[in-house]
Amino acid sequence: MKNIVGYSDKISVCPGETIHFMVSCEVSHYKATLVRIIHGDTNPDGPGFKAEPVKSEFEGSYRGRKQVIRSGSCAIVPNHQTFEKLGSFSVQAMVWPTTPGQGRQSMLSRWDSKSNAGFILGLDDKGGLLLTLGDGTGALEHVATGRAMLAREWYFVAATYDATGGDVCLYQEPLKVHAKMDTSAELQQTAKVKPRHDNGAPLIIAAHYAQTRNGRTETSGHYNGKIDRPVLANRVLSRVEMERLRASVSLSSLGSEIVALWDFSKEISSDRIIDVSPNHHHGETVNLPTRAVTGWNWNGEEMCWRHKPEHYGAIHFHDDDLYDAGWEADFALTVPEELKSGVYAAHIETDDDEDFIPFVIKPRPGKANSKLVFLVPTASYMAYANEHTGVDGPLAELVAGRVLPLQPTDVFLNEHREYGGSCYDSHSDGSGVCYSSRLRPILTMRPKYQSWLGGMGSSLWQFNADTHIIDWLEQKQVDYDCITDEDLHYQGYSALVPYRVIMTSTHPEYWSKQMWDSLDAFKRQGGRLIYMGGNGWYWRIAYHPTKPGVIEVRRAEGGIRNWAAEPGEYYHSFTGEYGGLWRRQGLAPQKMAGVGFSAQGFDISSYFRRRPDSFNPRCSFIFDGIGKDELIGDFGLIGGGAAGLEIDRADFLLGTPPNALVVASSENHTPVYMVVPEELLANAPGMCGGESDLVRADMTFYETPEGGAVFSTGSIAWSGSLSHNNYENNVSRIMSNVLKRFLDDKPF
User: Fold this and answer.
1) CATH code of 341's domain
2) Over the stretch 594-638, which tens digit does the pLDDT of each residue have?
3) 461 lies in a domain?
4) Helix (H) or strand (E) segment spanning residue 468
5) How many domains, the chain?
6) Which domain holds residue 339?
7) Dihedral-angle region of residue 744 (phi above 0 means left; psi in -120 to 50 means alpha; beta otherwise)
8) Do 312 and 342 fall into the same domain?
9) Do the Cβ atoms of 382 and 438 come closer than 8 Å?
10) Are residues 443 and 386 in contact, defined by beta-carbon separation less than 8 angstroms?
């Protein structure tokens, strides 16, 4: 099993910039070297693994140390004297628990775990409301309603403590009442333990304080579910006063008695929580709990949180949320001027294990070493980061059409859920993972990794499939630069200005609005686009406005999804933009590349056959040296053909330009290939390969204004055929023809 893993603080760097590497190693020593990744696919039928060693300042041996990931989200409010001086107090909130009965969970706490001092309002083992009191000397008292709450139902919960006589009141009131199912409770009891408030601990929402280590606050007892409008008061509030606070009545009548009232509908796009009381006890969220979610008072009148934020005053916390693993750096690289642009990795290895930490070396802003740039799809890598579909997906083997051989990485990730999930996974409470960060080891973005989709000799996915393109460029001695789509997002059109041609990856699926607009501007200004894959420009994403290296995906309305966003939660929390498919927003992939996602299947790939348009003089250069009836790509490392996995078709109703030529199409796909759901208005037979004309990949070409052009392959599997027969084949020939003409300055 793995004993060494790592990650970096950046995904791309240019000469002169420094990148840091964080490593966890469970043996005494490891080696670190720098390599340039050329071909990451270990399929024995292909060229094999290729990595070029590069001398670097960090090369050498290092002492191993284990570093731990602390997953689980919460909100932390720094300690303050007003908390320390509490005597009597009241706490209340609206809560929507998602895993009641699955262990104790802390909802609102001021608790020091070392001395057992303070209070915790949370859930007991059975899912009922629990107030824990501790005096700091070892005496604990638990006051519980003893009645379990229902999952995914809103409750008003509150607790009061009277320091004079020790009287405790608990309130557990469901927002909905169900016949013959009473989950409400009200309890009055005299406590023997007097909570100690001068414990030095922060106030924490959705967890409780465990300890501080290396400057980081560690928490425990994480809560799963939503919390809305939590309140802390410095006396016992009446039930009427509590109701007024819940209903957002002005605080003026309660004055200084309200220590804090946190309104989560404020600054939703940030990581701050805002206390609207005069005390301003603001705090910060940790590990990115989900925001822009419906609150207890949401009624469907407004679907966009920006228009009615008071209906979105909840935060959804999860015990497995993760943003930044928070490891300490072990070594760094300041990129030398002489290193060429490309995909690199820090190779870390022990005697019996290894890991690669990939990153991109890009040119300095505004500079270019070539007319061609390869756009590395790091957003798509992040969307699939550490996915568990092969283990968790109940239909995974039906989708793949065969028994799935799990790889060691899949087993490791299944056993170490603290490494975080992908945007295809669900949290432990069943809600979808809508955020994904690169500030953690992403073991699915590694050379040599074989996807759960089939492993060696069958399906290949994402990073290593993209190295087929890099390997082909190297073999053909084509000069190229690399930049990431994250660079494109932040730098915009200026990142593309130095280039004549952009070549995409095999699966550029996830795009922000900034990325889309920049590439569209590049096309309109005469740039040339070569689309090397399938299912591109599919999901709209957002990047966090202040936190680096994290994306957001809202699975709204349609599309192939492992989970669906809750009603009312279709808008990104980071930006307020509508989420879901680009197609649902009037920007189908056909408008960008001429083709868009049409069908998918993961068993056997097929081939392309030339169409009448291929004989049009406008595109004769594409088929130079290709026979009239020649089957194109009836070979390859991905499913045995060039047309497979996810395939795109032209559709003039969806935006394929009217001047586009459909020069070739695939055929004879197996019944495992299914039409994508957004194409269906109703379920009907005949939507599989061999039955529906929609199950096909189209190869297209069209010219753009200002002398530019677009060529699209329409298939993820296409690049897996490039190396066949020592790179001498018709797929490779077509790409050589296209690239030669696209690099030519002569306008189309």
Assistant:
1) 2.60.40.1930
2) 999 999 999 999 999 999 999 999 999 999 999 999 999 999 999
3) no
4) helix 463-475
5) 3
6) 4-68+327-370
7) beta
8) no
9) yes
10) yes
